[in-house]
Amino acid sequence: MKNKYLYGLGALLLGGGLSSPANAQNQARPSYTVGSSQELVRQLESQVATAQSRRAAPTVTLRVSGNQTLVGKVNHREALDASGEYVVGEIQNVPGSSFLLRIEGNVVQGNIILRQTRQAYQYSADERGTVRVQPIDIDKLLCVDYNQPVGYRNPAPQTDNTASKVSVISLQSFPGARGCIMLDFDGQYVSGTPWNNGNPINAAPAGMTDAAIQEFWELVSEDFRPFNMNVTTDEAVFNSYPKTMRMRCIVTPTNTAAPGAGGVAYLTSFNWNDDTPCWVFMTSPKAGGEAASHEVGHTLGLSHDGRLNPKEEYYDARTSAGNWAPIMGAGYYKPVTHWSRGEYASASQTQDDLAIMASATYNVGYRNDDHSNSISGATALARNGTSVSGSGIIERTSDQDYFTFTCGTGTVNLNLNTVGRHGDLDIVGRLFDGSGAQIGTFDTQGSLSTTLSANLTAGTYYLQIDGTSYGNPVTEGYSDYGSLGTFSISGTAPAGGTVAGVATMYKDCNYTGTAVNLPAGDYNLAALQSRGILNDDISSLTVNSGYQVVVYENDNFGGAALTLTASNSCLVNNPLGTGNWNDKATSLRVQPAASSFSVTLQAEAASVNNGMTAEACTDAGGGQNMGYVDAGDYLVWNGINFPTTGQYLIEYRVASGGSGGTISSDLNAGTIQFGNTPIPGTGGWQNWTTVSRTVTVNAGTYNFGIYAQSGGWNVNWVRISRVGSARAANQGSVAQAAAVLDLYPNPVTDQLQIHSDRSLASSEYQILDAWGKVVAQGSAATGRLNVSGLQPGSYTLRLVIDGQVQPAKRFLK
C-alpha cells in the first residue's frame, strides 16, 4: 500500500530470535564487555546531545574489542523512556555498513554489520544489565549476496497495471489461517527500520499486471501450502493479523535495502512484533516468486542451502542434470524447488526446513490433515454419472490421503494432478481393491502429475495419494521430503458396483434414496460424512445376519442409543418402542451381534463404598438414573456369571455435570480392567453418554464395578452381552477344530480386536505385511492388538491358540 510505513519501537528489532541461533554457533567466539546498559544509554545520549549542540551529524562510539572502536553515524534516533535509547545508522567511512542499538532497562539488542568484509557483531545483555558485544556469522543475521539470476533484467513496468492503482487484485491462499504473508506489489514508504541504515525508503510499485501478480502469488502460496499460513495480496487481510503472526514481503524494483541483490531479509524476523519487512527486487513471477519464498523462509528461521565442495553459499543446481533445487539455495534455474534437509551431495546445511518453520517458535504449524491416512476413513470421490472427482493437500512428508469409489466392470481412467504451474507435489497414486490388496502403483517419473488407467471388475476400490521422490537425491533428484502441496483427482469410472459391507444406510424410508454400505467398524460424524452420510439423515437401514447396528444421537457415540439387530424399513415411529429415530443418528457402530446371553444390571443388586446409596432404576431406557457415583466411589454388582469363555460387550450409560471427568470399569476389583473413558462435561444430568467396550473374559463368576476416577456420575443402565457364538473351550487332549475368529474393526485404525470362541489366555500372534515380513508379534491374551504403529496397507494375522495354528486372517490398516 502506497502510504507512510513507520515502524514502532516496541519491536524486537534484533530480538531473541536472532540471538538464539547466533549464540548457538558463536559460543567459542570472544565477547567484549562494554559496561552496564544504563552506562551505555548515558554514553549514547551524551554523544548525541554534544553533536546536536554543535549542529553536527550525531555520532556514537561503538567499542567491539579491547583495541578496536568504531564510530557510528546516527541516522535515526528515539529516546524510548528515561532508561532507554534506540539508534540506527552506519559506520563512519565504511561503505556497506550499518548498526542498530536498542536499550530498554536491562534489555539490550543490536548489531553491527560490515557487508564488504562480511563481518558482524551482536549486542546482548545478561539479567544484571551487563552489556557484551560478540562477533557473529553474518549469514546467521542477514541474507547477504543473494544475487539475481545470471543475465536477469526486470520486465518493463506496465503503465496500465493494477499495481499502480489504489489496490491490487485481492488474493488469499488460506483465509482464516493462523499466520499471514503479504506480497506487497503497490509500493511502500518504510522508515525507522534497520533497512537503509535507518533512513527512509520510498519503494516504487512492482509495475506488474494482474496476471503476473496471480502467477507470483501462486508460486509462493504453493511453497507455504503445508502450513497454517495465508499468503495474501490484501492489505486489510494483513492488518487483521497480530504483528507477531505476519510478514510483509515488499516486491519492488527499488533495491535500496540491498543494492544488486535479488532479495534480502533478517533471520527470524517473522515474530519480531514490529512489522520489519523482507524485500524482493525482481518482478517476474518465477524469479521473484522463488526469491519471496526464500526471504520469507529466512524470517521463519531458515539459513542458506549451499555446498561445501565446491564452496558456495547458494546451491542453484545448474551443474546438476536434474530438474530440482532447494528453495533456500537459488531456485531460479530449476522448474521444481522444495524445502530441503540437505540430502544433495556436499550440502553445507542439513537443517530440517519444515520442522523449523512449523515449530512453536513461530506459532504457525502445519495445516490440519484433510483426509484420512488409512482405508478405514477413506473419503468417497464425488460422482456425477461416470465422472468422479476429488482434491486435497499433502501437508506432511508422512501424509497419505485415501479415497474410495465404487464402479461397474470396465476401465477406470483418472488424472492425478498437482497445480498447473510451479507445483511442489510429485504425485504417486496407489490403487487397492475392496479387501485392501494393492493392485498397482502409478507414477510418471519426470512429471509431477500422473495418470491411472486400470480395467476393474465391479466393486469397491481405494485410491491413495502420496508425495514421491524422483531420481537420486544425492545427484540429480530429490526425496519425498519436500514433495508437498495441492492435488486434484478427475476422470471416469463405470457406474455400478457395490460397497463391500455388512450394513447399508439409506437417506429415505423403505430403503430408498442415497445408499451407503458400511463394513464393521465405528463411525463418528466425520467418518460418516466422509462416506457421504450427512448428520441426522438416516431413515432406514439393512444389516446382515450376525451383525448389529448401534445408532447414537450425538457425535462420538454419545447421547441416546438404539441397537438394531435386523433391517428396519423406516425409523419413523419404529417398532422397537424407543420413539422416532428418523433423521436422528449422528454416529454409529456396526459390530457382530450379541448372542442370546445378555444381562441388564439393576441398582438393587449393587453395593457401594463410601456410604453411597444406589437408587432404584425405574426406566432403563429413559431418563431415570439408577445410581450416583461420586469421585472415588465404586459401584459394584456381585456374582455376575459369564457362562462361556469369549468376547463380551460391556455397555453402560452415564451422565455428568458441567465439569466432566474420567470413569472406568473392571471385573473383580481391577483384576480385569476395561480401561478409562474421559467423559466431557455435559452441563446437565440427563445428557447421556454410552460407553461401549468389547472384552475377552474366561467363563466364571465375577464382580463387575464402575469407578469414578474423577467427577461425579449418574449411571442410567448397565448391560453385558455375549458377542458371537458361544462354545466352551475344550480342555482335553483331543485335537480341536479351528477357532471361530473375527477381526473387528476391519479396516482398523489403532486397536484391532480379536473375537474368538476359544480362550485367548495363552495365545500368541504374528502380523505379516504384504510381502510376508513379520512386522509385529507377541501375546494376544487380551484380545486387543495395538496396530497404531503399522503403516497403511494390507496385513495377515497368524494366531496360535493352545499350541494350534489357526487359519490366517487378513485385515486392512
Automatic annotation (TrEMBL):
<feature type="domain" description="Beta/gamma crystallin 'Greek key'">
    <location>
        <begin position="501"/>
        <end position="545"/>
    </location>
</feature>
<dbReference type="InterPro" id="IPR006584">
    <property type="entry name" value="Cellulose-bd_IV"/>
</dbReference>
<dbReference type="InterPro" id="IPR007280">
    <property type="entry name" value="Peptidase_C_arc/bac"/>
</dbReference>
<dbReference type="InterPro" id="IPR001064">
    <property type="entry name" value="Beta/gamma_crystallin"/>
</dbReference>
<dbReference type="InterPro" id="IPR008979">
    <property type="entry name" value="Galactose-bd-like_sf"/>
</dbReference>
<keyword id="KW-0677">Repeat</keyword>
<feature type="domain" description="CBM6">
    <location>
        <begin position="599"/>
        <end position="721"/>
    </location>
</feature>
<dbReference type="Pfam" id="PF04151">
    <property type="entry name" value="PPC"/>
</dbReference>
<protein>
    <submittedName>
        <fullName>Carbohydrate-binding protein</fullName>
    </submittedName>
</protein>
<feature type="domain" description="Beta/gamma crystallin 'Greek key'">
    <location>
        <begin position="547"/>
        <end position="592"/>
    </location>
</feature>
<comment type="similarity">
    <text>Belongs to the beta/gamma-crystallin family.</text>
</comment>
<dbReference type="InterPro" id="IPR026444">
    <property type="entry name" value="Secre_tail"/>
</dbReference>
<dbReference type="Pfam" id="PF18962">
    <property type="entry name" value="Por_Secre_tail"/>
</dbReference>
<dbReference type="Pfam" id="PF03422">
    <property type="entry name" value="CBM_6"/>
</dbReference>
<dbReference type="Pfam" id="PF03995">
    <property type="entry name" value="Inhibitor_I36"/>
</dbReference>
<feature type="signal peptide">
    <location>
        <begin position="1"/>
        <end position="24"/>
    </location>
</feature>
<dbReference type="InterPro" id="IPR011024">
    <property type="entry name" value="G_crystallin-like"/>
</dbReference>
<keyword id="KW-0732">Signal</keyword>
<dbReference type="InterPro" id="IPR005084">
    <property type="entry name" value="CBM6"/>
</dbReference>
